[in-house]
Design a protein that fits this description.
This protein is mostly helical. It has helices spanning 3-11, 21-30, 35-42, 46-59. It starts with a helix and ends in a 7-residue tail after the last helix.
């Protein structure tokens, strides 16, 4: 874990439900879109992050392709 991510966790501790799509976007940018590091930075499980991303994408009316 980087110093920057520790600082983020210490200053921005939030409950899982209070993490906004904007928080996820900022964390993704800070970690160069590394989803595992983003989940650690936000203090959530990686699967929870994937579920959040899937929900945001579906709410935006976009389709997920594999």
């Amino acid at each position: 874990m980087t110093v920057e991510s520790r600082e983020f966790q210490e200053t921005d501790k939030k409950t899982t439900r209070s993490i906004t799509p904007k928080d996820v976007e900022e964390a993704l940018i800070r970690t160069n879109y590394n989803k595992s590091e983003t989940a650690r930075l936000l203090g959530i499980d990686r699967k929870t992050l994937y579920n959040r991303l899937r929900n945001v994408i579906s709410q935006a009316g976009l389709k997920i392709t594999n």
